[in-house]
UniProtKB/TrEMBL annotation:
Start and end residues of each ABC transmembrane type-1 domain: 81-271
Gene3D superfamilies, per the entry: MetI-like
Keywords: Cell membrane, Membrane, Transmembrane, Transmembrane helix, Transport
Family, per entry: Belongs to the binding-protein-dependent transport system permease family. CysTW subfamily.
Transmembrane segments: 24-45, 85-104, 116-141, 147-168, 197-218, 252-271
InterPro entries: Bact_Polyamine_Transport (IPR051789), MetI-like (IPR000515), MetI-like_sf (IPR035906)
GO cellular component: plasma membrane
Subcellular location: Cell membrane
Protein name: ABC transporter permease
Membrane topology: Multi-pass membrane protein
Length: 277
């Protein structure tokens, strides 16, 4: 006699708490990491709209646009900001120019000591800033160089050079050499090949290195503090102001720099996506 009883329907496994945690653990850690990174930035933006009762802008009191209407209201703030900007621009221009030439030389030419040079490039990046700053201070004092904006620029060029060389070298290493060979097969001379093929391909790496250099120069405090003399940059102004109470204008400048950085990143991504099409 045949069994006509229908088979039992398959019941799907009910999701358990442990399975949900296992499936979403990476997302949770990602969100926590983003909160950890952006919470201080959000706090800077928030307190740029605060109207503190006294000089200390650490406790939320009242929403206000006073600081945004008068960003130079805090004495000496804009002077230090412009000092940081022009020092960053000069140091970036020198480091980017010299570093790009060095990267081409170390990537495209073989010479005695090339391996040692490649190792020494990383030395300023691995040296603690306290050591680099005190070493430069000793050098300047021994040579009788007066401390000021010039010594700050020299110091910033020193540590920015390594980052430029490494960034541009990485770009050169990722280039397809057949593109340059194809240009030469089409009767382009070395100068035409460089300006019409090589340089446009390396340009994104050079721009990235320049942006990184400016960022490093703008926010450097330790090395600058050793070699600045009476010159006051924006990070040094913030450090000094923190001893007697930060003005909301400091948060305004920080928020402005954040907006500029985000704008540059968005434009860069837009240009990259347009080129990828």
């Amino acid at each position: 006699m045949l069994d006509t009883t229908p088979p039992a329907a398959h019941k799907p496994n009910r999701p358990t708490v442990g399975r949900w945690i296992r499936d979403h653990l990476v997302v949770v850690f990602g969100i926590l990491a983003l909160l950890f990174m952006f919470a201080p930035i959000a706090n800077v933006v928030r307190f740029s709209f605060n109207k503190p009762e006294g000089k200390i802008n650490l406790i939320w009191n009242q929403f206000s646009l006073d600081a945004w209407k008068d960003p130079c209201g805090a004495s000496g703030l804009c002077d230090s900001l412009w000092t940081s900007i022009w020092i960053g621009v000069v140091a970036t221009a020198i480091a980017t120019g010299v570093g790009t030439l060095a990267a081409f030389g170390m990537s495209r030419h073989r010479f005695r000591g090339r391996g040692l040079a490649n190792v020494l490039v990383f030395l300023p990046m691995a040296t603690p800033e306290v050591v680099a700053g005190s070493s430069l201070l000793t050098l300047f004092l021994n040579l009788g160089v007066p401390l000021g904006a010039v010594t700050v620029v020299i110091a910033h060029v020193m540590f920015c050079l390594s980052f430029v060389i490494v960034t541009v070298k990485a770009r050169l290493a990722g280039m397809d050499p057949t593109l340059e060979q194809a240009a030469q097969d089409l009767y382009a001379d070395p100068t035409q090949t460089f300006w019409r093929v090589t340089f446009p391909l390396v340009l994104p790496g050079i721009v990235s290195a320049a942006m990184l250099s400016f960022s490093l120069s703008f926010d450097d405090f330790i090395i600058t503090n050793f070699n600045s003399g009476s010159t006051v940059t924006f990070p040094m102004y913030v450090w000094g102001a923190a001893q007697r109470g930060l003005a909301p204008q400091v948060n305004v400048v920080g928020t402005g720099m954040l907006v500029i950085a985000l704008t540059v990143v968005v434009i860069g991504r837009f240009v990259s996506s347009r080129r990828a099409r």
